Amino acid sequence: MKKNIPKGEIFRVPEGYFESLPEQVMAKNAQGKQRTIWISWAAAAMVVLSTSLFIFKFETESITETTTPTALAVEDEIELLIDQGEWSAEDVLSLSDDPNAILNELVEEQWQSYQFSESELEEELWYY
Q1: Under 8 Å CB-to-CB from 88, ≥6 apart: which residues?
Q2: Which tens digit of pLDDT belongs to each residue from 4-13?
Q3: DSSP one-letter code for 14
Q4: What residue spans define the domains of the chain?
Q5: Which parts pass through the membrane (predicted)?
């Protein structure tokens, strides 16, 4: 390593060094600023993206949590009005789009709880 160092005047400045020095410094500063600006834009984009994803997820969860209790509350309120006698069965059926389907479901629910044998069913038919 000592062999590569010139033995002459080692503190001598090369010719034209100070003339091109400001241009070299400005070029290096400009390159550094471009990288910093690019990184800051990328960081800002990541912050905006993560914030929007968090808000979207929070809003989606709050919507699903609020719709289910509301739907249950409406059904409970309807049952309460029917139990108190405020509404009759005819009122509820008039609100439905297909009242026959509701009546069929109610009949099926009621008749499924009864267990008839074939002989009991035949006897029942003979009496009526």
Answers
A1: 82
A2: 666 666 777 7
A3: P
A4: 88-128
A5: 36-56
